[in-house]
């Protein structure tokens, strides 16, 4: 199989703890280069080359694909620059600040014939794939409701997630997971109407907690909760006319290196420990080399960004 030589822009927590280790563990991935404002953190990712600027990294001819884990407000700019430099791009969630930015990114991917994917690692987890396939196959009957949450007590001192201008807040940071699960279950072209959106704004102007309900195609009710100030919990419960399905436990979206289980009607299915980041990187690499793979479609990311915009405007 072909090898993918990766360049990483940004060397924060996600790159250090999840992405670089997954790339080093993936036999067909190489951490070719890193560019970060923090040299020490860049060295921790153990790349072949450390670049002194983002421009130098995206122009490195030895880099095939770029992983972007910068603050949210920089995702669009650097995705487009990397695509225009001829690189494939895997960009940390949330994809961008608004729908117009996602459309610009998608245009750049098309114009340069490069792959552009939003890095929502949860969507590559076998348990998530299984529940989506099970529900879409009609096993629980017509969908009635989807209830989902992602909450944790965040320590955010000096973090870009505290800044509205940088795309901070609970909705963008963790609300994205329930919205991606909802979109995977209902499809990319569903008609969503926000029924309620209750927000608690923190001292810096970001939403510390967002709670919402939406109507989908006038048939399905979806509720979501995203919070930086509540006890740690992640849930996904899907109800249909005939039956229901639920991701068991408190790690619906971040089950990582640990076993997990799924209730489908009366049955429980067990899943062995996996690294969804590694599965994401493996599938991305296969996709750019025209091998059998699955990546999160741009249409899905655009649908989720539209929902984010609807929720923001209904605050």
Distance between the termini: 48 Å
Low-confidence segments, ≥5 residues, pLDDT <50? none
* CATH class wording of the largest domain: Alpha Beta
CATH topology of the largest domain: the name is Dihydrodipicolinate Reductase, domain 2
How many strand units? 14
Broad shape: globular
Beta-strand percent range: 25-35%
Could you give a short account of the major beta sheet? 8 strands, mixed
CATH superfamily of the largest domain: Dihydrodipicolinate Reductase, domain 2
Multimerization state: single chain
Give, in spatial order, the strands making up the sheet with the most strands: 8-9-10-7-11-12-13-14
* Helix-residue proportion: 25-40%
Q: What value does the Rg take, in angstroms? A: 19 Å
What's the order of the H and E elements?
A: EHEHEHEHEHEHEHEEEEEEEHH
How many structurally independent domains?
Answer: 2
Count up the helices. Answer: 9
CATH architecture of the largest domain: 2-Layer Sandwich
What structural category do the secondary elements indicate? alpha/beta
Mean pLDDT: 96
């Amino acid at each position: 199989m072909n090898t993918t030589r990766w360049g990483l822009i940004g060397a924060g927590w996600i790159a250090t703890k999840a992405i670089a280790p997954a790339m080093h563990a993936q036999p067909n991935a190489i951490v070719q280069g890193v560019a970060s404002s923090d040299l020490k953190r860049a060295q921790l990712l153990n790349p072949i080359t450390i670049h002194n600027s983002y421009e130098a990294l995206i122009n490195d001819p030895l880099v095939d694909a770029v992983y972007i884990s910068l603050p949210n407000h920089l995702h669009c700019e650097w995705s487009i620059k990397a695509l225009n430099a001829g690189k494939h791009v895997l960009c940390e969630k949330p994809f961008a600040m608004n729908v117009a930015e996602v459309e610009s990114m998608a245009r750049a991917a098309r114009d340069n014939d490069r792959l552009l994917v939003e890095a929502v690692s949860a969507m590559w987890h076998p348990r998530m794939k299984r529940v989506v396939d099970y529900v879409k196959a009609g096993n629980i009957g017509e969908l009635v409701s989807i209830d989902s949450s992602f909450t944790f007590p965040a320590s955010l001192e000096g973090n870009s997630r505290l800044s509205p201008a940088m795309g901070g807040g609970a909705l963008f940071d963790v609300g994205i997971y329930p919205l991606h699960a909802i979109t995977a279950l209902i499809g990319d072209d569903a008609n969503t109407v926000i029924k309620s959106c209750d927000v608690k704004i923190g001292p810096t102007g970001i939403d510390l907690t967002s709670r919402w309900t939406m109507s989908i195609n006038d048939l399905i009710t979806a509720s979501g909760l995203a919070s930086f100030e509540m006890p740690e919990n992640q849930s996904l419960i899907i109800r249909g006319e005939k039956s229901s399905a639920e991701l068991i436990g408190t790690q619906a979206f971040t089950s990582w290196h640990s076993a997990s289980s799924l209730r489908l009607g009366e049955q429980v299915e067990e899943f062995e420990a996996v690294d969804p980041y590694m599965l994401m990187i493996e599938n991305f690499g296969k996709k750019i080399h025209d091998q059998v793979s699955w990546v999160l479609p741009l249409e899905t990311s655009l649908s989720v960004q539209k929902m984010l915009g609807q929720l923001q405007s209904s605050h």
